[in-house]
């Protein structure tokens, strides 16, 4: 479960002695339950990416508390966050963020290397997950030799390789055509249903928001709950 309490964030911009505060999030409290798919929607600039960056520890909140699976992650050091992310959170990005100089195989393998998994086990797990996302035979392809949809699948395989219980996705379908988007959404539902993975998805796209059990809207830095759309499959 992800619990956010009294979360506020502002950026400081401008030159020294002429700094200005840009408030982005104001006193946000919410809970995301295990096994849920939650869509975070809201206008451009409403603070969606900032919220996700705070939940994933890439930024520190100005105020407030974040708890994940009972651990107070907002008090974590950088090193603790890095370790926690590796164990518990997978990420999917709009622009895929694959390393261009590495093959599909190596992109997916990287997190396991960092974790210190043995080479034999890595090979087994990487081949398994690439096959699972429909990329058997594409292991040695570089990102620029793959279509957008295939790159996104490498991105999903990379997110799944550490078997996280939470996946955070920032505009994951923003670079996909509508057919590939539908395949991606179907896969998310399947992962959620079969493995109970919790998804937090930022999106502009109402079709994407429809796969969510719950939609929350960020408006001027505060949340508006939009109610249940689907039942949570546990
Ligand atoms: N590093 C930063 N320094 C200063 N201001 C920032 C910084 N990052 C974001 N902001 C500001 O915070 C606000 C929220 O940005 P954020 O990227 O979280 O919005 P968003 O809802 O994800 O937008 P979009 O849908 O366009 O991606 C914006 O007004 C933006 O200008």
Layout of strands and helices, then pairs:
Blueprint: E1 2-13, E2 20-32, E3 37-42, H1 48-55, E4 63-68, E5 71-72, H2 78-88, E6 89-93, H3 104-115, H4 119-132, H5 148-160, E7 166-170, H6 178-195, E8 198-202, H7 206-209, E9 214-219, E10 222-228
Parallel strand pairs: 3-8, 3-9, 6-7, 7-8
Antiparallel strand pairs: 1-2, 1-4, 4-5, 9-10
Helix pairs in contact: 3-4, 3-5, 4-5
Bound molecules: adenosine-5'-triphosphate.
Adenosine-5'-triphosphate binds at residues 11, 13, 22, 24, 42, 44-50.
Would you write up a description of this structure?
The protein has 234 residues and is of the alpha/beta class. It has a single domain (2-101, 164-228), classed as P-loop containing nucleotide triphosphate hydrolases (Rossmann fold). It is built from 7 helices and 10 strands. The protein has helices spanning 48-55, 78-88, 104-115, 119-132, 148-160, 178-195, 206-209; strands at residues 2-13, 20-32, 37-42, 63-68, 71-72, 89-93, 166-170, 198-202, 214-219, 222-228. It has a 6-stranded mixed sheet. A hairpin with a 6-residue loop joins strand 1 and strand 2. The longest helix is centred in the last third of the chain and has 18 residues, at 178-195. Mean pLDDT is 90; it is low at 227-234. The protein binds adenosine-5'-triphosphate. Adenosine-5'-triphosphate binds next to strand 1, strand 2 and helix 1.
